[in-house]
Amino acid sequence: MTGAPDQVPAREVLRLAAPALPVLAAEPLYLLVDTAVVGRLGAVSLAGLAVAGVVFAQVTGQLIFLSYGTTSRAARLHGAGRHGDAVGEGVQATWLAVGIGLLLLGVGQLVARPVTEALGDGGVIADEATAWLRVALWGAPMVLVTLAGNGWMRGVQDTARPLRYVLAGNGLSLVLCPALVHGAGLGLVGSAIANVAGQTVGATLFLVALVRAARAGGVSMRPAPAVLRAQLALARDLLARSLAFQACFLSAAAVATRFGAATVAAHQIVLQLWFFQALVLDAVAIAAQSLVGAALGSPDRGAERARAIAGQVTRYGIVLGIGFGVLFAALAGVLPPLFTPDPAVLAAVPVPWWFFTAMQPIAGVVFAIDGVLLGAGDAAFLRTSTLAAAVIGFLPPIWASLAFGWGLAGIWSGLAMFMVIRLVAVGLRARGGHWAVTGAVRS
User: Fold this and answer.
1) pLDDT at 17 (0 to 100)
2) Whose CA is closest to 83, among 261, 218, 224?
3) Nearest by Cα to 274 from 172, 174, 355
4) The whole model's pTM is what?
5) H/E segment holding residue 409
6) Residue 183 class from Cβ within 10 Å (0-12 exposed, 13-18 middle, 19+ buried)?
7) 347-366: string of b/e by CB count within 10 Å (b at 16+)?
8) Residue 178's Cα: distance from chain center in Å?
């Protein structure tokens, strides 16, 4: 790594990371509240949310290239002084978001029941999961438009407006969720309706901002086939990486379900906390994506500056990870009862909880370096290393848990192995420096 002169001031990292933190935390924080609201309905409803929620999250989450890929490309163009082209990346990413979102909505309605039956018990858990998922799918196009909006705005180093937009949408969902689930007596379906309402508000705000930016910069709002093809080329690697995550977490949910409603409900509580802290740690990674991309797009010592930023954000990730580990260890007896009063669920929580706590420092480093490599557009390496970690580390313990009755201990051992393998892989990659390829567009 290069020395301090090539690093950016800490306040610049904070300027980008601080607004990104609540944006990243807003959705998982809402899901935690949603889990607590639904948890008052009982273990079956909470298990139904666990099954349907992981399906929806993984299907939309595997399309994260609409955000991360767009940030990488827009940041390089922004660093090269081509602001209009950076906004144009947002326009094309939004076209992709709308098209893919409508496809997901149509196909999802057809396969919702078979998927929830495969992951659930085929009985009451599957009934609850199907009802939630059929409604929640109407929000899929909105979620993807929001991903694209976050992507281009981060690329041009604007993380303040996404904060306002996401908080507006999630704030509405936060008010509607308990009102619809308990007040209106809609049960689990009320949770899904609240989700869709908030997602629609957020997506609308991002669309309005994109249209205004395009008009101000004289950027065409029409589809541009050449840019769409370039975005899809980057998407291939990021999609394969996301599919690895999807296979792992869907497998974990399916295996946990086989051990009963209390086990899968406990898994859901700790898993939602895992998703929450993962995205919070990603706040620094978001800053890294924008800063590394801009540095590599600039002709002024871009590679040296990018490597120095990589060292900075890795150190910040370590500090955050240790802090989260200490925090969750201290709250081990406090947080779980907030989600459910069910004694069987609470009795199952400690096993995944201590895995979750111990992995925080590892996660802090992994997510920070992920941000560096994503900002550099090093998607092919991230694809390969993530697939290897999934096949070698995560999936074998999950399915062995089913075969040998290991339960949540086996499932969360798989997640721990997955994170350790990723730590080794991205750590070696960052030290090597081969990812620091300069230019307005990475070839």
Assistant:
1) 83
2) 218
3) 355
4) 0.77
5) helix 408-432
6) exposed
7) ebbebbbbbbbebbbbbbbb
8) 24
Q: How many of the other CB atoms lie within 10 Å of CB of 316?
A: 23
Q: Which parts of the chain register pLDDT below 70?
A: 1-7, 28, 120-122, 440-443
Count CA atoms closer than 13 A to 243's CA, side-chain side: 10
Rounded to whole angstroms, the Cα distance separating 203 from 193 reads 16
- Which tokens in the block code for residue 430? 């960052």
User: Tokens 């959705």 — which residue?
Assistant: 27
Element (H, E) at 188: helix 188-217
- CA separation, residue 63 to residues 145, 245, 341 (Å): 11, 11, 35
Contact 181, 192 (CB under 8 A): no
- Predicted pLDDT of residue 1: 41
Nearest to 433, CA basis, from 371, 366, 378, 364: 378
**Element housing 58 (H / E):** helix 43-61
What DSSP assignment string belongs to 57-105? HHHHHTTTHHHHHHHHHHHHHHHTT-HHHHHHHHHHHHHHHHHHHHHHH
Spell out where 90-211 has E strands.
none
Q: Which of 275, 287, 251 is nearest to 370 (CA)?
A: 287
Long-range contacts of the stretch 208-213 (C-beta < 8 A, 24+): 209/149, 209/153, 209/161, 209/165, 210/87, 210/90, 210/91, 210/94, 210/149, 210/152, 213/87, 213/90
- CA 52 to chain centroid, in Å, comes to 17
**For the chain, what percentages of helix, strand and coil (3-state, to nearest 5) are there?**
85, 0, 15
What is the reported pLDDT for 3? 44
Domain ranges of the chain: 4-432
**Tokens 């420096």, located at residue:** 433
User: What's the CA gap between 292 and 310, in Å, rounded?
Assistant: 8
Q: What is the pLDDT of residue 212?
A: 96
User: What CA–CA distances, in Å, run from 189 to 26, 27, 130, 311, 350?
Assistant: 21, 18, 10, 46, 29
Q: What angle do CA 100, 103, 105 make, to 5 degrees?
A: 110
The secondary element (H helix, E strand) that includes residue 268 is helix 261-297
Name the amino acid, one letter, at 17. Answer: A
Contact 224, 94 (CB under 8 A): no
Residue the block writes with tokens 């041009």: 156
The Cβ of residue 9 has, within 10 Å, a number of other Cβ atoms equal to 9
CA–CA distance, 171 with 164 (Å, rounded to integer): 10
Q: In this structure, what token pair is assigned to residue 205? A: 């705000």
Contact criterion met (CB below 8 Å) for 152 and 210: yes
